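Structure tokens please, single chain.
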Amino acid sequence: MEIIADTEFWLKVSAIIALLLFSGFFSGSETALTAVSRGQLRVRSDKGDKSAQDALDITDDREKLIGAILLGNNFVNVLSASLATALLTSIFSESGIWIATIVMTVMILIFSEVLPKTYAIAHSETVATNVAKPLKYIIIVLTPIVLIVRAIVRGILRIFGSQTQVNLEALAHEEIAGAITQHHYEGGVEKQDRDRLLGALDLKNRTVEEIMKHRSHIEMIDKSTDPAEILAQCLASPFTRMPIFEGETENIVGVLHAKDLLREVNRLVRNNTGNDVNAVASLDILTIAMEPYFVPETTPLDDQMRAFLHRKSHFALVVDEYGELQGLITLEDILEEIVGEISDEHDHEETAFELASDGSYLLDGAMTIRDANREFEWNLPDDEANTIAGLIMHEAMSIPSQGQKFSFFGYRFEIVERERNRLTKISARKVE
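Here you go.
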């Protein structure tokens, strides 16, 4: 009773309680500032909320923030445990060490870790803005020690060959993509919206060669063709722009726009005294053709879209590192990677897949792996090939024959149709 009535006893108890509260403050702050959305903080900051701006400021350097919090938290935890040990050993002698260990473990676990962190997770934005200002001053005070600790840690990591630099751009990209995917799984984002958002984010990670129309599918105009036949070909084509070649298809000398062609035909007919349609025979398509615009096949889609917008052009021919024609790409092709297929009244409706009675899909071999993954919620890898046919040939290390079956990556494929060296129709289904 004399000990309990002692002023020193109550001072130590008060100090231990205060240190436990400080420990809870540091633990809750760490959880809140880690879990809070910087986007929400930015919105509040733009509206003039200074506490939100303080939270943004201290989370800019997360390494310094976490270092200061851990330093403060460990200091108060060790000090509180030491005081409790000294206090209880004065009452229970050597048994006080074990009593202090058990009591402080329970107290720190409940009141300094679980309780504050649980509250911080549930109210991360409120906690983050409330603790931002006091933490700002604590970080300033502890920064010299944190910098010394950081230098020691980085030195040790370099000895073992570990890198400490973080690619913030890639980290932000992954964070946004992960949030969109998670909200989709939770039902907050529709599949179509998820595909559009992820498609826009993914443009910088994909190249022109992944979505270009292959040269074997390009409709071209032979410069030596009779003008009347050229006019008929352009009117029958669903495309408004077509490359012009001279001699061989690799030698592209221009790009003809249907509107420019019709203007020239109109001029020739009207300038003819009898408005004779035969005036078209004097048409020279190279005089109205645009200069061909060539781009490397390795160009990121994000850069190519910006180039299209800057040039006010929608059409480019794709070449490889040797300058050989590989295909063509349009602004519409890039936009379709975001919003999905864009069709107009002149497009030929072609279905890239059909659902069979056994639950498998009959796919066009030229269907891209990315489109299949998006359409069917698959997860086929697209590192080594762009199309379903290309993936099968890569895995088979040969050009399969009609009727051959393969199983890889958890999916079963059957070659339904083959034309020369092309796999045109493929049956695919996920293996349960």
